[in-house]
From TrEMBL:
Main location: cytoplasm
Lineage, top ranks: Bacteria, Pseudomonadati, Bacteroidota, Flavobacteriia, Flavobacteriales
InterPro entries: Asp_de-COase-like_dom_sf, Asp_decarbox
Gene3D superfamilies: 2.40.40.20
Protein name in the entry: Aspartate 1-decarboxylase
Pfam families, alphabetized: Asp_decarbox
Class of the enzyme per the UniProt entry, highest EC level: lyase
Pathway assigned in UniProt: Cofactor biosynthesis; (R)-pantothenate biosynthesis; beta-alanine from L-aspartate: step 1/1
Cofactor, how bound (note): Binds 1 pyruvoyl group covalently per subunit.
Length: 115
């Protein structure tokens, strides 16, 4: 049996931008992506704590140590600058591996940077 598990979580980042005219995706500071083990193009679930919206898109790296969290394309309509988000990715593991798997959990500071 295969189990979906949380692979990565970036907890409580602040939206720095929303670009309706970009093709799509979420731009995430490259340092945060690396810390959370998120790769370019990976599907990301976006949970907006500020308005309750949830959506899925894919990750693209933003400038390292910039704190950038920008929703692009249609997803830009689901956020406002300053909204607080939780970003998560998932993996499918066999049941035995899923029982011991530990996700990458990242808790940035209020500027979306690692301490």
């Amino acid at each position: 049996m295969w189990i979906h598990v949380v692979k990565s979580k970036i907890h409580r980042v602040k939206v720095t931008g929303a670009d309706l005219n970009y093709i799509g995706s979420i731009t995430i500071d490259e340092e945060l992506m690396e810390a959370a083990n998120i790769i370019e193009g990976e599907k990301v679930q976006v949970v907006n704590n500020s308005n309750g919206e949830r959506l899925e898109t894919y990750a693209i790296p933003g400038p390292r140590k910039s704190g950038e969290i920008t929703l692009n394309g249609a997803a830009a309509r689901k956020v406002a600058k300053g909204d607080i988000l939780i970003l998560m990715t998932y993996a499918m593991l066999e049941e035995k591996a899923a029982k011991t798997f530990k996700p990458a959990l990242v808790f940035p500071n209020e500027d979306n940077l690692l301490a």
